[in-house]
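User: I'm new to structure prediction. If I give you an amino acid sequence, what do you actually give back? Let's try with this one:
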Amino acid sequence: MKNFYRCLFICILLIPVSLASSAQVAHEDADPIESQINLYGVKKASPVLFVHLDKTIYTNNETVWFTGYLLNIDANAIKEHRILSVSLINDEDSKIAAQANFIIDGGLSFGNIYIPDSVAAGSYHFVAYTNRLLKGRPEVVFKQSVTIKTTNEPAFSLSLSLLDSTKGQPGKITTLLTAKAKELPVIQAPVSYKMGTAKKRATLATGKTGVTGEDILSIDKNQVSPENHVLIAEVGEGKQKESIRLTIPIKKQKARVRFYPDGGYMVAGKTSRIGWEARGAGGEPLKINGILLSNGIPVDTITTDSYGMGIFKLTPKANSKYQVKVIRAGVVDTVCALPNALPQGITLQVADALQTDSIILKLQSTRYQVVKILVHNYKEVFVTLDEEIYPKGLVTSFATADLPRGLNMITVLDSLGRPLAERAIFAHYDKRQDLSIKTDNNEYATRQKVKLNLKLSSASGSPAKGYVSIACVQDNRLSYRHPNNIESYYYLSSQLQDIPLKDNLMGNDAADKEYLNKVLLIKGWSRYTWQEMLKTQPADTLRQYQTIAYNGDVTFAGKRLKKPMMLSAIADTLARIVRTDSTGHFVMDEQGIVTPADKKMTLYISGKEKTDPYVIHFNNPFEGMTKNMADTMSLKSIEVPAVTETNEALVVQGLNKTRQLQEVKIKAVKDGLLYASIPKSTLDHDPGVNECGDYKCMNDILNCPNHPNDNNQLRPLKKGDYVKVWRRGQYVSEIYRGCVIFKTKDYPSMVQLKGIYANKEFYVVDYDAEKDSIPEYQSTIYWKYNVPVNSSGETSLWFFTNDITGRFRIIAQGVTEEDVLYSEQTFNVKKKLP
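Assistant: Good question. You get back a string of structure tokens that encode the predicted 3D arrangement of the chain. For your 834 residues, that looks like this:
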């Protein structure tokens, strides 16, 4: 059955490339342009990696649960992707907060990664890539922005505010820092101000708080720029140090305005639909007003929406100059020139790029022309139309039945095959497969059972099946600022650049479709270029891949070996032999170093005494690759200026920590609080965790993933104890074999190392059987991967709410035989009455 699932998954994952693969064979009588497009498609073919996270807002001491999907890849290449490396990287200083590797099998990877208490609150990126390299870099990379909040109360509270600029010194920006501890001022605390990026941050000034706990700083406005506008204040010293950051408004600068005529060009005497985009100096979208000028004379007023996008119509006159004067508070009034209108040419208009069955085109020309219209995706041509255009114009259409779902391009060529106009469309936007998520109630009490039914329906009406991963989390642990949607990522974000953030990116409401029509007009140009396609040569399609693997060397008395030797590798209960070459170098097979999550493996030279001068030098190449990527990868997010910031914005608030709930009798808890567990204790203070890091919770689950950081839930664990472990889809009782610790510093011929982690099951609490357990405040109450869904019947699941009240969201996403799949549902939880 396992092999069947794997084969089925591979078939599903290959669906998006089947059409492209069939188009790679060029026929002798094929159109040269079509053959060139096919060749370009081979050159640009690339897999897509997507990782479904259980949520996008975490606290330290929580676990990130994830499923990785490798899409758009052929059956041979998928076998080369065997390891998924995941890491959590701080946006501020590019430091790696956590990193682990997991097995990929058939394009799928399941796992979890723990966020330790030492991770500072702030903005991070979850970054994933595989072991296959192209030109020395990972072939596929996935980045997901996340926020990490902290469970630790600050030593004292800080606020940093901008003072009224009209009352300060000319040319200066003035800030007020306030430090308090239990509402009392923090007096004479050292203060250090810095500005700039983590890699290029200079100290601006130092000082001390006064008798009111305040300190005032004046900054020259010329020191603030788009690249240097985040002020950091550090107060205190040693363990009693707190920091706060404030994004300072950049002095008035010009808005970044760009214009995108429908089809690519404006033509004199012909009406064009023109998309335009306005962004601030920091890259943020601007809702802005503009005055359209013709030779300096106002002729119209235009606007952009909250996403910084707008559309207007214009019939340009020959020899006229058109400009837009943009007006907005905080932005320098700027006059921006539109592209010059061509004296001769054609215009292409697509009023609705999301039409279901056919796309209607309106073409206008200054003279009679014979043109060829190609509909393609820069991999394959699906529709070819030969048309005659007269000066009075032409309205034509084509059916979308033969187009693959997703982004496609319309290109208009003249009789010599030269491009005259181009436009992006989205075919079969509404023809998505639907996954129905039904709960037995819309509202539940705390610790009540939730029954869930899933059913898949095919857009074509034919039988359908697939697999999804499912999360049920506290709703305030998800944010539109951190979109994690396999459908919008696969079809839009992975192909178009810098899409404005929006909730429900591919929704079905009229406003959603209006937004996407603007995106296709304005952002559709960022995919490929016709000129690049025409330059493609057959040699461009040849690729040389490399794979990275765990490796190392054995030395004797500091020198290379002169003959091969054997090493023993123990991972969990499995022992394997690793053979070196004649110089002592070895490469480890990934299947031989798979360990339970968060467990280390041991590599040693058997039969050698600890006094023998053999030394094993082990190399995990993923660590170096991740470090290099963190140093070079752009993780910058848009900074929105604020009047006041506090150091408590990223601190979990409310009576929501397990320890507090045990010490205080709570009469009422507000809905919608952000819940988190208490920090994980050290071994010295935790009687339930042994030297190997093993523990069991009150339900006897070995290394229970729901209670990795709760002292009061852990129970002493020793050799011979019965524990519950996950075997073949259920928890079964086994005898704990005990803990053996080797002090590797005493044995140079032995090393302990992080292996490749196997997936861990999320433990679903059954409150019908565990009625007396202490309060549970896990923000993720359900996670399950590899859940089969189909159109012939319902898939039934169950789980329990815990002691958190408020709104919860269920998200299911994955793959089917035809497409990718995303669906969600919500319900509410209220306090259970006595």
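You can read the tokens as a compact description of the fold. Here is one thing that stands out. The chain has a mean pLDDT of 85.
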